[in-house]
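[Automated response] Your request has been received and processed.

Submitted sequence:
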Amino acid sequence: MTPAIFALCLLAAFLELDTTYAGQLTFSRGIIAAPIFSLITGDTMAGIQVGVFTELLFADVNPLGGILPPSAVVCSLVTLALHTLGIELYITFIFGVIAALLFAIIEKYRRKSRFRWLIYWEQKITQKPTTIYQAISMSLLTSFLINFLLLFLFIWLGSYLAVWISSHLPSQAQIACNFAYMAVPWIGLAALVPEFRLKTR
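Generated structure:
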């Protein structure tokens, strides 16, 4: 792993906290996260393209109730990090989407397992209210570290798989993957059109 990819994982783990844990300043949206990552990778055009595509692909999935949408940060990170290895965007974007879906599933189980942890801190805060700052700090730090390890694992495994697949993928399959990648914004726009129609009525 290069220092740039290591820096990308640290930044992505921090931006992932913006989804629900802290801030919620929309830095975790694909349209913002991907261009920020591209400042490290050095490919601004790829960052903007991946950001727009990720935003359109996940635009109609909202984090309401128990719904955990795929992580735009994870999708952008994995796509751009693997692209720095010389793999085409239309292949790395597939890995990015898969990683984003896997991250959402893992996050769901992480939230369920956190229930006992919350009960423990609730008892401590009831006894001593000032421990709430310690609870928040510990929660953010553990989430950051787990995010970093997961993202690093995704890129490490994805790099081997992406290199192997790209070298063994037939030319016709590469054309099909490229076509599917270029169809992403149209799929996203098609999903958004009904939403705008409902709001204008």
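Summary generated for your ticket: The chain has a mean pLDDT of 78. The CA atoms of residues 142 and 148 lie 10 Å apart.
If you did not submit this request, please reply to this message.
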